[in-house]
Amino acid sequence: MWTIERIKSEIESFIDYANEIVGDIPSAKDVPVEIDGRMKRTLGYFSFEIDKKAKTVTPSKFKFAKRLFEYYSDEDIIDTIKHEVVHYIVTLRYQKDMQHNEVYKQFCRALGVKYDIYFKGKPIKPIKKEKPRYKVKCGKCGAVATRKKMGDDRAFQILANCHCGNCSGSFKYIHDTKEDEILYLYDLGGRTGTTVMYDDREIYEETHGRIQ
Q: Nearest-CA neighbor of 139 among 86, 79, 209?
């Protein structure tokens, strides 16, 4: 099982190895490591802060997607960790963001690390699809659209200004299935909104129709 401690150990082991090849690499034992369940677009990254006046770089953290450890092999996990450690090495050595430039690739080649920008690993088991949290219902034809994420501002914008792609009708409500709440506008001309809690659903459904 992959834990923060195991990831840190892998990082330090690779730095020890890299020091034998390229030398002069500071320990990363004090650099925080995080596993994030919300990361969807990337499996890992190394972040840092740049002091433009002093022209120095300070490492901030290593961050990895939770799904990396849930769905991929140890080989792919270790490759991803090494990929980010090389970013750490070249960023600190040259005191600037080297991204995936030729210098970064040279270090990868010297250390036996894959330098592909896009991850090419294959999951070892089917990745569980995330169910949409929000259901948006048209008040005219009853069509339901779904969204995985939505802030309050976007919800109000959809209800006040957007229209159904099937019939051009106005949207009736947004159902937050996780919290079991209904958000709807009672003034479509403005930004005023209200939320219907679970205890009010019978009253709401009598007035506005059944919540799907």
A: 209
Task: Reduce the DSSP state of residue 126 to 3 states and report it.
Answer: coil
Name 134's bridge partners. 147, 176
User: Does residue 84 carry a pLDDT above 60?
Assistant: yes
CA gap 111, 18 in Å, rounded: 7
- Both tokens of residue 143? 């069509």
3-state secondary structure of 174: strand
pTM: 0.68
Quick one: pLDDT at residue 185? 66
Do 182 and 203 touch, CB atoms closer than 8 A? no
Nearest to 165 by CA among 191, 194, 195, 143: 143
Q: Residue 128 — pLDDT band, cuts 50, 70, 90?
A: confident
Beta partners for 62? Answer: 33, 46
- Contacts of 88 by beta carbon, 8 Å cutoff, 6+ apart: 28, 31, 46, 59, 62
Q: How far apart are CA 95 and CA 107, in angstroms?
A: 15
Cα–Cα distance for residue pair 47/184, rounded to 1 Å: 40
Give the Å distances, CA to CA, from 145 to 22, 62, 130, 163: 54, 36, 15, 11
Q: Give residue-wise pLDDT tens across range 132-166.
A: 888 888 888 888 888 888 877 777 778 777 888 88
Other beta carbons within 10 angstroms of residue 65's beta carbon come to 21
